[in-house]
Amino acid sequence: MANISVTGASCRLEPSLTADAIRLGSLSAVSPPALERLIAELPEPPWDVELAPDDDLLGDLLAAGFEQYAEADVLARSLEGSRTNPPPPGVKIGPYRNDWSEPFAEAEERAMAESAFYAEMAAPTGYEQADHLTGFFAATAGTEVLGFIQATLPQGWINWFGVVPEHRRRGIGRALLSEVVSAAREARGTHLAGIVASESARAFFAAERFEVRNRRLLLIRRS
Ligand SMILES: CC(C)(COP(=O)(O)OP(=O)(O)OC[C@H]1O[C@@H](n2cnc3c(N)ncnc32)[C@H](O)[C@@H]1OP(=O)(O)O)[C@@H](O)C(=O)NCCC(=O)NCCS
To answer: Most buried pick, 17, 104, 118, 212, via CB within 10 A?
Structure first.
């Protein structure tokens, strides 16, 4: 991670949700020329920016060739009062294993088809080989992967979460979330949070009593 600054503009280069792009964190620019000066100092695009819908920079970024790729809600909930929900019959939930990488990648492609984040990522996403990550669980039936969740612990930030379409509304998402709740408690976390851009995820998290903390726009400049 590096800080880039020019007269009137600065940002920090960070990893992006889209895997491929560079996230321009803490971006500020006092004017379009200052933004152009900063852009001239950046490594090769794509670049990705997250900002509030009323941020003054929005117009300047759109004029500088950035496109909006998602409108997302940041959601959060306290761990207090969470119930444990077992998976439905025939479905097992356990820590993710890299030897599931093939069925995982297939499930990921189908589960995340409606996710604006996945659409911007280059498959493979890297999660298929990421059993070292904290809070990473998969729901399986035999050799098939039906769903997955991964959260940074103890912070409780949910990075990746999906259930394949034909197994939705069976309680698999709820059971996966329960695993993360238990792991977050063990790690002495206090909250869960995440950023969602799909209708199914908004409905799921509302049913799970997450509250919307703020709204974010995600912009990308591809070249
Ligand atoms: C979000 C997601 C993981 C939920 O998985 P799921 O296994 O279907 O969730 P559950 O069956 O445990 O649902 C629990 C409750 O959430 C609510 N819910 C879930 N999906 C819903 C939907 N599409 N519409 C309305 N309510 C919904 C319901 O109250 C449901 O309980 P019910 O079925 O008894 O009514 C799944 O919809 C998904 O993969 N979405 C696309 C990927 C994505 O956007 N991921 C999040 C961002 S990383």
So the answer is: 104
